[in-house]
Amino acid sequence: MDYFAGWNAMPKYVVSRTVTDPQWHNTTVLSSLADVARLKEGDGGPIFVQGSMLLTQELLKAGLVDEMRLMVFPVVLGTGRGPFPTDAEDKVRLELVESTTYANGVQYQVLRVRR
Questions:
Q1: Out of 4, 37, 43, 72, which could bridge 107 as a Cys pair, Cβ 3.0 to 4.6 Å?
Q2: Burial class of residue 14 (count of CB atoms within 10 Å of its CB; 0-12, 13-18, 19+)
C-alpha cells in the first residue's frame, strides 16, 4: 500500500466551528475542545495536530497536550504568532526528551508535558 492510500484509510479529525461536512473519506468533524477531550480519552492511539497554531494554543491551555514535536529553525522573524499561548492561566511545564540538530541548524525537539 502506498503512503497516500494509508493516509486516506486512517481516521482523520477536523477541529472546526464552521465546517460540518469535510468531504474527505474517513473524516470526522470535532466542533469543540470537549469533543477533542472525549477523543483523547478513547483508546485510538496518539492524536497529531498539523498546521494549526491557534488550535495548538487552545489545546495547551485546556491541558489536552501530552507531547509536542517541534522543528525549530535558526531564524528570528521579529514578529508573528508562536506556538505557545500568551493568555494561559498557568504554566505548561515541558521536558525535553529528544533533540536532533541537522547540518543546516534546524533542530527537531520532542517535549513532553510534565504534570
A1: 72
A2: middle
Contact predicate 16/29, CB 8 Å: yes
Helices (H) and strands (E) in the chain — how many of each? Answer: 3, 5
C-alpha 101/C-alpha 35 separation (Å) is 36
Residue 33, CB half-sphere, CA atoms under 13 Å: how many?
A: 12
Nearest to 71 by CA among 41, 101, 39, 29: 101
Cell, residue 68 = 509536542
Count other Cβ atoms within 10 Å, centred on residue 57.
Answer: 19
Could you tell me the CA-to-CA distances from 91 to 16, 19, 77, 86 in Å, in that order? 26, 31, 25, 10
